[in-house]
Amino acid sequence: MKLSDDRLLRMIAVFKFFKAASLITLGIGAFRLLHKDLGTVLEHWIMALRLDPGQHFLDVALAKASNVSPAQIKKVGLGSFIYAALFLAEGTGLWLRKRWGEWLTVIITSSLVPIEIYEIHRHPTWPKVVVFALNIAIVVYLIYHMRRARPASQ
Question: pLDDT (tens digit, 9 = 90+) per residue, 82-91?
Fold first, then answer.
C-alpha cells in the first residue's frame, strides 16, 4: 500500500470518527433533555444568545420544540448512538487498514445515499451537499482502492 493510500484511508477514518463523536454528543444531549420542556430550554437559549424572539423562524421552532414527546427524544438519542457505533466500526476498520472496514464503509455509506438525496431535495443546504459529496467521493475512492489492491489471481 502506497503512503498516499494509507494517508487517505486514515483521513476517511478520522472523518468517520468525527461523525461518530458528533452523533454521540447529539445522543447525550437528547437524553439530557429527556425530562425537560424543550420549548422552555429553547426559549432560554434564544434569550441567552440575544436573538429576537419575535422572528417567525424562532416562533416556529418554539412551537415545534414544545410538541416534541419524550418518546421522540428517546428515538433521537438511541438512533444517534446506533449510527455512532456504525461510524466507529467503519473508522476503526479503516484506521487499521482492514478489508472488512473498507467493505463496511462502502456498504453503509452507499446505503445512506438515497436518504441524503431525499434530504437535499427536501431542504437543500450547503452542509448537506458537502457531506453528500464527501460520502460519494469516499465510496468511489474505496471501490477504486479495493479493485486496485486485490490480488491478480482473483
Answer: 999 999 999 9
Q: Interior CA angle at 110 toward 28 and 16, to 5°?
A: 40
- What CA–CA distance (Å, rounded) separates 4 from 2? 5
Lookup: cell for 110:
452507499
Q: Which three cell numbers stand for residue 100?
A: 472488512
Domain ranges of the chain: 3-149
Q: In the Cβ-directed half-sphere of 42, how many Cα atoms lie within 13 Å?
A: 17
The verdict on pTM exceeding 0.85 is no
Buried-exposed string 15-36: b where 16+ CB fall within 10 A, e elsewhere: bbbebbeebbebbeebbebeee
